[in-house]
Amino acid sequence: MKDYDIIVVGAGPVGSTYAYKMAKMGYDVALYDMKNRIGHPLQCAGLVSTNIDKTKNLPREFIDNEIQGANLTSPDMTSITVSKQDTAAYVIDRIYYDKYLANRAEDAGVDVFYSTRVYDVDIENTTIKTKDDTYSSDIIAVSCGPNSQTAKKMNPEVEDESFLAMQYIVSTLNEDTSFLDINVNMNILPGFIWSIPVSYREKRVGLFTNGSYTQAEMILNSALKSTDVVVDKSHGIIPRFNPQKCIVKNNTILLGDSASQVKPTTGGGLIAGFNSAQIAAENSDLMLKEHDNNYLLRYEKQYHERYDNEFKTQINVQKILEDLSEDDVNFMFRQLKECQADKIISKYGDMDDQSILIKELIKSGVIFKLLPKIGIRRLKNIWKSQ
Ligand SMILES: Cc1cc2nc3c(=O)[nH]c(=O)nc-3n(C[C@H](O)[C@H](O)[C@H](O)COP(=O)(O)OP(=O)(O)OC[C@H]3O[C@@H](n4cnc5c(N)ncnc54)[C@H](O)[C@@H]3O)c2cc1C
C-alpha cells in the first residue's frame, strides 16, 4: 500500500499548482517544501504577460500594476518604444501569490509539509526520503527549482547551463507606471537590465547574466538613479532550456524550473510552468486511472510539442545577441527605428510566443535590413526552428 497517490517535492508556484489540480481530481496528494515561509525571499521580477489569464491561475488581487509597453534602449541610448492598446503584462506580488497557491492546494485537501526537506528521490522505487522517514507514491513530481538533484540524476549526461539573476527593490518616484524599461548592456548580453514599476513609489531593477556576482552587482548599482533607494536585494538562478533534458523517468516527473521550463530570452518561467503543470496533471490522471505509466511519457511528448520550436527559436535569437558587438547592437536599434519596426513589434510582439514576431519581421523584410549583423547562417537557423 502506497502512502500517497502523488508526492510533490517543492511548493513553488508550479509544484503547488500541480498538487492543487491533482487534489481537485480526487487524488491523495502530499506536498513537501523545505521552507517554512513560502515565497520568501522574493526572487522574481513578477512580470507576466496577460497570457496568464488563459491559465486561470492568477486572481486579480495579486496584481500590483499593469504594464502597457516597454522602452528598449541600446548602449548608445537609441530608444524604441513598443506598446499595446491595452494591458500587455501584469506586475504581480510573488510572495503573497506563492503563499496563496500553496494555501489553495492545502484547502483542496493536499497534505502540505513545510520546513521538510526532501533529501532523496528514489526513481526506481518511487519513494522520497525526508530526515525522519521514507514515503512512497504512484507518481513523484519534482518541482524544487533550478538546483534539482533529481533532475541531475535523471540527466547524468546533460550539462546544465544557467544564468545568474539579481534584483533590487527600489524606493523611487515613477512618473509613469505603465511602461517598463529594458536596457541593453554589452557586458551581460544576451542578458539585459530591467526596471519595472510596481507603483508610483516602487520599482524592481534587475538583470540576468552569465557573468559573475560581483560584475552583476556593479552593473546594477550603475543602473540606479541618484534619488533611488535600495530597500532589498536578492539573487537567484535561471535555468537555460535544453531540449535534451529528460523530464520523465519511470514514475518520476520534473516540472517548472527543475525541468528548465523557462523562456530562454527572458528567463520567465511562470506561464510555461503552469501550462506544463496542466499537461502533466491531465496525463497523471490518465496514468492513475488506466494504470499505464506511458501517459507520463505522453506528458514529456506534449510538453516538447508545445514548447520546443518556440524555445529553440528563442535560443537562436539569444545566440545571435551573444555574438554582437556594441556597434552591431547600436546599428540594429537604429535600423529598427528607421524602418518603424516599433509598429510591427507593438502589433505582433508576444512575450511568450516570440516566434510570431520573428515571422512578421521576416515577412515585412525588416530582418533583411539587419542581415549584415545577423548573418545568413544564423537567419537560416531561426527560419528552420519556426
Ligand atoms: C531574479 C529572478 C527574476 C525572475 N523574474 C521572472 C518574471 O518576471 N516572470 C516569470 O515568469 N518568471 C521569472 N523568474 C523565474 C520564476 O521565478 C521561476 O520560473 C519560477 O519561480 C519557477 O517556479 P517553480 O515552482 O518551478 O520553482 P521555485 O519557485 O524555485 O520553487 C521551488 C520550491 O522548491 C523548494 N525546494 C527546493 N529543494 C527542495 C527540497 N530538496 N525539498 C523540499 N523543498 C525543496 C524551494 O524551497 C521552493 O519553495 C525569475 C527568476 C529570478 C531568479
What does this structure look like?
- It is built from 12 helices and 18 strands.
- With 386 residues, the protein is of the alpha/beta class.
- The chain folds into 3 domains: 4-60 and 92-159 and 241-307, FAD/NAD(P)-binding domain, CATH 3.50.50; 64-91 and 161-239, D-Amino Acid Oxidase, subunit A, domain 2 (D-Amino Acid Oxidase, Chain A, domain 2), CATH 3.30.9.10; 312-384, no CATH class.
- Helix 1 packs parallel to helix 2 (94-107), helix 1 packs parallel to helix 5 (270-290) and helix 5 (270-290) packs antiparallel against helix 6.
- The longest helix is centred in the last third of the chain and has 30 residues, at 294-323.
- The termini are far apart.
- It binds flavin-adenine dinucleotide.
- Residues 9-15, 32-35, 43-48, 117-118, 143-145, 165, 167, 206, 236, 238, 256-257, 262, 267-270, 273 line the site of flavin-adenine dinucleotide.
